[in-house]
Amino acid sequence: MTYIAKPKLHHPTLTTNKVGYTRRDYEGRISTLCAGCGHDSISAAIIQACWELDIEPHRVAKLSGIGCSSKTPDYFLGASHGFNTVHGRMPSVLTGASLANRDLLYLGVSGDGDSASIGLGQFANAMRRGVRMAYIVENNGVYGLTKGQFSATADRGSKSKKGVINSDSPVDLVGIALQLGATFVARSFSGDKAQLVPLIKGAMAHGGAAFIDVISPCVTFNNHGGSTKSYDYVRQHNEAVSRIDFMPVRSEITTEYAPGEVVDVPQHDGSILRLRKLHDDYDPTDRYAAMSYMNEHQSRGEVVTGLLYLDPLATDLHTALNTTHRPLNTLGRAELCPGVAALEKINASLR
Amino acid sequence: MNRIEAINDFVIKFANVNGSGSASANELFSKAVMRMGVPVSPRNIFPSNIQGMPTWYEARVCEKGYHGRRGGVDMMVAMNPQTWDADIAEIEPGGYLFYDSTRPIPESRFRKDVHTIGMPLTEISNAAYTDPRQRQLFKNIIYVGALSVLLDVDADVFERLFAEQYKGKERLLASNIQALHLGRNFVQENLSYPLGIRVRRSDMVGDQIFTDGNSAAALGCIYGGATVAAWYPITPSSSIPEAFQKYCDKYRVDPATGQHNYAIVQAEDELASIGMVVGAGWNGARAFTATSGPGVSLMTEFIGLAYFAEIPVTIINVQRGGPSTGMPTRTQQSDLLSCAYASHGDTKHVLLFPQDPHECFEHSAAALDLADRLQTPIFVMTDLDIGMNQRLCKPFSWDGARDYDRGKVMTAEELEAGKDFGRYKDVDGDGIPWRTYPGTHPTKGSFFTRGTTRNPYAQYSERGPDYIYNMERLLRKFRTAADLVPQPVLREATEATPFGVIYFGSTTPAMREALDVLEAEGLHLDALRLRAFPFPDSVSEFIAGHEKVFVVEQNRDAQMRSMLVNELGFDPARLVPVLHYDGTPITARFIAKAIRENVEVVSGAAGAPTAQKETA
Q: Tell me, what's the ipTM?
């Protein structure tokens, strides 16, 4: 980590986005993570994505659990409210926050220990409910803050820094998200910003539960030979299913593609995820095909990345609950309190 | 044989099999007596089971309006062969046994010192109905009809209750009235009536309402402006969110759009339900959860977070018998310590102690205000006895001018005007800092909420002085809470006395009766009903003003007494525990006996035994 704070003053010629912010306005405090940590690259990708999406930073609520990954919301979107909750329980807090104010964008940041070990239940149930959010797991297969224990996503047979071989089966968060009804499921690699930024943009614009599993190597405890979450291993085994461009609502489409070369997947808000297919047989709108594709490639030791599944007709928990379009936290006595006359009627019915 | 003679003052107990539809018939009986102007306090005594196990409904008819359990049974309606022997044994000598005589029961299984009234209920019901379910359900109405003659309750009271209940369902109305009269006619034609115990028209019910604490708490959350409820099913609290849903259907659907001005989520466990409430509270919505002891145990980590990060949370704890799974369908006040000091590290939480459904309504609405004002978890400490039993109580009331107290929330305008915002800074001297809702202002007022230590401006800090500042401020805030919570209620004895008694919650009706009994015996006590923790100064003054103070509570370890000693620093010898914790609601007889014996033993030790003691 560095302890030299960046100057707050911006260069006057820095480009601003449509809402008048420079990229620097999306930054947070200086990261305290280890130099070279994959998580810092993800923070940079989030900053880039939010800036490019023209989101006003204060309209994002960023929530996390506990762990190295969960510390990162302090390092981006400094003008947003953040909530570093308890270990493994970010999904429930985010769910409640989302119920209270449906007008904000919710970004959940978690780690593999946080979501696949202690918080597996909350992760699973948030996916089931279709809470509208971008849920990013910064997955390094290891507990960093407690110095190198295996996490639940560590592959069977992978080796810890101390030389221990992991004998437990890994939890596959992507597989679980697909199975439990997440409507946007992706996997990426912290070292592939070109892929990660449009995925985050797609997730932020998505109308339901969007999950991105980002393999994010731990340079200190899990970047050695024998690890399946090291930079080298992921680079060698990365099998991207597509290249993605995120097209915001009503943007002009200028590039011409040969037929069959691209697939445009529209989202509920009118934005489009344009996929340049790298595998002819991959259909990202078929949940079951995606699951089977994943299983097949995973069994060969490949790390499949890209947009794995997208339901263009996604709905969310608010739709299911038929909640008012006004944020619940803005309702007052007039909407909420039935009043004195109604209470008298209730009293009369209880005599 | 002696015969119990009592007008408007007796206990009748119904021994049933659960799942047999007896609950609504028994409730009908209670309501009819109340329509006669005579107060009734019924209690369900039921197992943690859905069908086939024994269940009891004990109704105390009492013109004086004592709603506590009296103890003892004057009349047993023995409808469950499984529990026959124990049920028969419970009847007071000279009391009454009512039973289904369709199948003969050997004489040896009856008691010689109680009056036995047999009636072939099954036979009558089977002759009148063919459908097996109807035979079962109407058998219950037939016995209610029979009791109405035996106890001298007017038929038209029942007929009016049926007419209200089955408005628009004429067929059901007719068949219920038929069943009622089957029972009435049989008694009139075959038995002698009325019994020595009976009901006489009175006017002691007044404008009181008859309802259960869980529905009342749910209604309090509606009136108090809760918009988010997250819960996990657990006895005896589940009927709170269910009632909340019912009231939301009625009062919280926008008539123009059909959209909901509320959100209810049945979570995957209590960790998630409290997590959602914390998230919603953080984001400026009024949110609550309802649970019981085991749920609070699971929520404990989050409760610590909400305390330390200062997030409004309302938790309604309908206490049951602990520890562990304990007695899920029995009552206790045994979560006081686990709630007052929930979570690791130094924590203290605000607890409210409603005495009845009326206060369940009041305290639930108040809790939502207090949570916002104090930015901390507020517990409404009800219990199964209040929560799941219907009780006569004061009608609900609401001040039409009352607005919600949203506490110290800094607005975009204030931030824009340059007002200093330190999320954890005490600017008003009451320990309560200002907060902002997420999304308030583009560049000002955002902060990072965390469970780790921080400085007054919400920046991570492990510096000792920052930590101490924060912890001291939280204590100051807790002291502020003592003035904001519902204040204790004092009942002074008619004469000056060195004895005091402290009690709270569902103990209240039994206490009220015990105080009357003891006073009639010449034993005077000043009584203080606690309504909240932290304790205001009036509690210290009360204890200091008496030589000996009894602390009456429904748990084994004298938890409230421990809290009084712990918080106020009194000599424990001064506070005498009176503890009832077998899972049944505490009775006036129990309290009076415990206090009487203690006073007599002590005065006996000082001098010669009193005559009273020898005959006691």
A: 0.95
